[in-house]
Amino acid sequence: xxxxxxxxxxxxxxxxxxxxxxxxxxxxxxxxxxxxxxxxxxxxxxxxxxxxxxxxxxxxxxxxxxxxxxxxxxxxxxxxxxxxxxxxxxxxxxxxxxxxxxxxxxxxxxxxxxxxxx
Length: 118
Known about the structure:
About 70% of the residues lie in helices and about 0% in strands. Helix 4 packs antiparallel against helix 5 (about 85-100). It has one domain: Serine Threonine Protein Phosphatase 5, Tetratricopeptide repeat (Alpha Horseshoe). With about 120 residues, the chain is mainly α. The protein has helices spanning about 1-20, 30-40, 50-65, 75-85, 85-100, 105-115. The protein is globular, with a radius of gyration of 21 Å.
């Protein structure tokens, strides 16, 4: 009888452990990982314009689900805006990243400073 209780407790413990590991992330990742991979693997297939469109769509989907976007989302989006010559949008994206993830402040301050240079 004691072995049955011990076995049941072990099964319950394993179930709790594995359930905790399967918990989905709090962040919405959208197509970000695929976009970054394509950007490096086949740059001609992941233009800045196309990435901005997809990331903006992903942002709207995340907002509709009331989920935050992951760290680095706005930084990457700001970099894409910068590549497209959209300094105001880049500035807003970098400031948003800095506000949402204060640990990115040093990098975002450098990115913001680079926008000031001619």
